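From the shared-data thread, chain only:
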Amino acid sequence: MRIGEIATATGISRDTLRFYEKRGLLRARRDSNGYRAYPPEAIDWLRYIRTAQSLGFTLAEIEAELPLLTAAQEQSAPLLRAALAAKLAEIDRRIDGLAALRGELARRLTDLPADCPLAPA
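Structure, as tokens:
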């Protein structure tokens, strides 16, 4: 498949596809005319990347931590579950931190002198 076909099939821009290729997330061979030729499974891999991003994974995390789709499912499923569990724990930590920050901001708005809510508590 050529880059335009992949872009149309996935809704991902050509520039993004080139960026993914430069980072090593996507592989293409070059035809004799220099055009990129992607294997059909590239569509599934790109959907995998986009789904992982929508779940909060960065491209660096996808590159380093998430198993390849080409691995046998019985091997990759436990690795994926572990990565999702780690991401969930990270999100819980961030939520706890934001809740504490919210509480401190609310306290400063109600309990501290009106002239300077940023005064040391």
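Strands lie at 29-30, 36-37.
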